[in-house]
Amino acid sequence: MAETAEAVEAAEVAEVADTAYGGARTYGRTREGLRAYRLITAMWIRSAVAYRASFVMTTLGNFTATALDFVAILLMFSQVDTLGGYRLPEVAFLYGLSSSAFGLADLALGSMQRLGRRVRDGTLDTLLVRPAPVLAQVAADRFALRRLGRISQGLGVLGYAIAALDIDWTPLKVAMVPLMLLSGGAIFGSVFVAGAAFQFAAQDASEVQNSFTFGGQTLLQYPPSIFAKELVRGVTFVLPLAFVNWLPALYVLGRPYPLDLPVWVAFAPPLVAVGCCALSGLAWRVGLRSYRSTGS
Amino acid sequence: MDRGVKGAGEGAAADGAFIELDGVEKVFDVLRRTGFLRRERRQVRAVDSLSFTVARGEMVGYIGPNGAGKSTTIKMLTGILTPSGGRLRVAGIDPSRERTRLAQRIGVVFGQRTTLWWDLPLIDSYRLMHRMYRIPDARYRENLDRCVELLELGALLDVPVRQLSLGQRMRGDIAAALLHDPEVLYLDEPTIGLDVVSKAKVREFLRDLNAERGTTVLLTTHDLQDIEQLCSRVMVIDHGRLMYDGALAGLHEVGDSERTLVVDLERELPPIEAPPARVVRVEGPRQWLAFPASGSAAPLVARIAAEYPLVDLSVREPDIEAVIAKMLRSLGDTGDRKDAAPRPPSERAVS
After folding, report:
1. B201 touches B151 (CB < 8 A)
2. Distance from A251 to chain B by nearest Cα, in Å?
3. CA-based angle B202:B208:B210, to the nearest 5?
4. Which residues are CB-neighbours of B257 under 8 A, at least 6 positions away?
5. Residue A248 covered by a domain
6. Which positions 166-225 of B are in contact with A (Cβ < 8 Å)?
7. Most B CBs within 10 Å, among A51, A119, A129, A286, to test the B interface
């Protein structure tokens, strides 16, 4: 066990050194990856269009199924006026941000949780013999536009919240909304990538991943004040999901965060997102390396 | 550090050896549950100090029993797996370190897994290859036209892949692997499950490809006819070790394999006497004669036709498993090649 940990550590050190001195190469690979991603997603969209009726129905289904989460919140507010001290438009603000950010990540990378299946049945090998980064190929695998359903209902709720909220909108606060969506999408996206990397080791781990992605998304739809302090600490310091919407959104709403943190953390999401992406990228490379040295 | 090595490798590739393996091995760690919480780690040696070279333009059959290490070798040659030890170069490139660069120069067909897009017309998969491999337009046109003509894909280009028969899909897969002019083509069971006509088409195409383009071909198969009709050279692997490397005829000799002549006579007669053939079975007027596979059937047939009232006859080829099994057994019996003798899979419990 110690041996393995050491090997992983050594590999990571090597990776870091490699990345540092091949900055140009990393840039080239990123471009290659995006290109491959675009080519492959185009193929999946064409495949989906081949079944037009089914495409329309699954998109509507996706919209309805995800909107039910908000219906649950509406039902709650038909009985109470505040939830953990928050009124409906405020909760809708949190909900819309969380749902849209997660929707972005789900649209771009949601298929990565199928990686375990590809490892099991050996079809991952067919991706490894192509001249394109595997991460891009796996991310684009089974790309599904029906996931736009989740984003559109999230954005709908967010629109309602912004219209209904009584906030003194400064330019800074306005700019924070798209910034939250992008950083939040990146943070959720890196959870998808890290989860997929873990599936190289445990092929049936997609449920564990779901509890972080779908579970985390649902958690963030509610105000932090209704959760136990330990849980809030966990999603702030361990798995930094709080940076998706809680910390920045509470600043916009002018509400105090349940933990004692300086004000500037509200502007940290882009940095946290970059850090998460770097870590998950590293996890992916370690995972892929272990696959290539042990086989399926 | 390894950038220097790469340069040296490319130099070596220029003088003949296109694929080079030197003492390559692959050891898998297998965890096995032995109790509620106890686990045993075993090392399984899938490929054991494998060394061979393949020259540019060769067509090689790579055969062996299931689990012998064939596909592990192919996976190392394509860069899917990283060897545990030894040195491996394809076109001067270390496959596991520069997998994507190598991908531009190799073609791979997995017999059982298609790389075509299931719901889209065949031509769409080719267009993706065109862009993904950045094939120059003129080159792509030319290669596609050639494949379409020789593999008879013309009528299939606009058909969704899911509607193709197995043989059609295999031909489609082979074309997809060749559009970027790979220097080497790896085929894993290219004729498995195909009917006689499809098999013949695929073989003819591969023969032409090798002759005209000089594409190096390495194929694994269970079909001895694939080897007979295509490969001048055969490598047999068992328990991760190279057991035989040479011409197919030589394989028959080493294994003393036999072909069978089935003879229908006019009436029931005592067993035919025509050494070196010997009768192995008699059933009414039909007799089965075994004769060495290395010899020709013609003199034997002529002799029987002259001396016996012959109605009909047919020749049966030995199947590949029988040939290999005999070869492995004979190598084990002679004992003079002790290092190459078959032995149980080298498993070793380490904890």
Report:
1. yes
2. 46
3. 100
4. B251, B292, B293, B318, B322, B323, B326, B327
5. yes
6. none
7. A129
A295 domain-assigned: no
Helix, strand, coil shares, percent, chain B, to 5: 40, 30, 30
> Total structural domains in chain A?
1
- The residue range of the domain holding A143 is 2-289
A chain contacts of residue B160, beta-carbon cutoff 8 Å: 50
Dihedral Cα B262, B267, B270, B275, nearest 10 deg? -40
Residue A255 lies in a domain: yes
Per-residue pLDDT in tens (0 to 9) along chain A, 296 residues: 444 445 545 555 555 555 555 677 788 888 999 999 999 999 999 998 888 888 889 989 989 998 898 999 999 999 999 999 999 999 999 999 999 999 999 999 988 988 988 888 888 999 999 999 999 999 999 999 889 999 999 999 999 999 999 999 999 999 999 999 999 999 999 999 999 999 998 877 788 888 888 999 999 999 999 999 999 999 999 999 999 999 999 999 999 988 889 999 999 999 999 999 999 999 999 999 989 877 64
Instruction: From chain B, pick out residues whose CB is under 8 angstroms from the CB of A51.
Output: 119
**Rounded CA gap, B200 and B152, in Å?**
13
Residue of chain A nearest B85, judged by CA positions? A293
The pTM of this model reads 0.80
Nearest residue on chain B to A125, alpha-carbon basis: B80
Give residues 1 to 60 of B whose Cβ lies within 8 Å of A: 28-29
Query: Residue A228 falls within a domain, yes or no?
Result: yes
